[in-house]
Amino acid sequence: MMTEIVEIKISDLGEIITGNTPPTSDRTLYDGDYPLIMPTDIIEGDKVIHYTEETVSEKGFRKYKKSLIPANMPCVVTIGSIGKKLCLTKVDSFTNQAINAIIVDLDKYDPDFVFYLMKYNLPQVKNLSSGTASGRENVSKSSFGKIKVKLPKKLQTQKK
């Protein structure tokens, strides 16, 4: 039996969330139980984040709860070191604005498969970089969501 391969946009995989960085001038938003993933926390070649330099407090959680990323969701750096860094969240986490997370539709897609799909497609992300006046690489959330990827249609096949 042939595996049916479909082409979809990244935005079709689930909800894309761009992170936030709480203002460092308000330290009451920091030093809590929720990891704050920044590109510098992502080690190339590692699948999950083992340690984050910063964490978010309960106060920060209440302020930014709409951008909380559930455990086991892929995150891709889209500002700065584009095309090099991605990870899966190990626990519920926040990310800064340099990272786009994909809250995978679990009824249709496997987060581990999506992680490797993104790893394979990182060159496409880098090719979309518009750069900025400062010369820093940057891929907007909308451009990121429009990237087309190919994958097996069946969830069961993705899990294999």
Q: Termini separation (Å)?
A: 15 Å
Summarize the amount of helix as a percent range: 10-25%
SS strand fraction: 25-35%
Structural class: alpha+beta
Describe the structure.
By secondary structure, the protein is an alpha+beta fold. The protein has helices spanning 58-64, 111-127, 141-146, 155-159, and strands at residues 5-9, 14-18, 30-37, 54-56, 74-77, 86-88, 94-95, 99-104, 148-152. The strands form three sheets. Strands 2-8-5-6 form a four-stranded antiparallel β-sheet. A hairpin with an 8-residue loop joins β5 (74-77) and β6. It is globular, with a radius of gyration of 16 Å. It starts with a strand and ends with a helix.
Q: What features would you highlight for this structure?
A:
single chain; 160 residues; alpha+beta; three-stranded mixed beta sheet; 4 helices
Describe this structure in a few short sentences.
The chain is α+β, with helices and mostly antiparallel strands and 160 residues long.
Any chance you could write out the topology, listing elements then pairs?
Layout: E1 5-9, E2 14-18, E3 30-37, E4 54-56, H1 58-64, E5 74-77, E6 86-88, E7 94-95, E8 99-104, H2 111-127, H3 141-146, E9 148-152, H4 155-159
Parallel strand pairs: 3-7
Antiparallel strand pairs: 1-9, 2-8, 3-4, 5-6, 5-8
